[in-house]
Amino acid sequence: MLTALLESLAVQDGSIRTSRARAVRTPAGPAAMHWRRAAPELRKEEVQMYSLHQLLWDIRKDPALAARFRTNPYPILDEYGVEGEARYAMLELDFKKLHEIGANPYLIYFCAIQLKVDRAAYYAQIREEEN
Predict the structure, then answer these.
(1) Average pLDDT rounded to a whole number, residues 16-28
(2) Residue 78 to residue 76: CA distance in whole angstroms
(3) What domains does the chain contain, in order, with CATH numbers?
(4) Whole-model pTM?
(5) Reported confidence tier of residue 48, pLDDT bands at 50, 70, 90
(6) Distance between CA 59 and CA 73 in Å, rounded?
């Protein structure tokens, strides 16, 4: 009876729906409600930051993507929808700028490693030192 009750209930915020197999994350819930309430310009900034984070994550996890990015970054940036300051920073591999615009430092660091950026050069850039 308890199992049947738990299976029929969903978390009130709608972010998790239960099934017999497992709990599944859905785009509903507090995050989706936030997107509906946010101003359009805020939503665009959030989407752009999400796209940047997705690119950093994918470069970190996929050596083939990293190699393609090193060869020709423009189509990859277009594919991920990275625009504005983030696009310029990725083209220039300006990791300090990525930090300043709010990208996740973990993702930046491991993306830099995957892009074969020298660690000393990376740290010098972050600390604004001369190479």
Answers:
(1) 43
(2) 5
(3) 2-34 (no CATH), 40-126 (1.10.700)
(4) 0.65
(5) confident
(6) 11
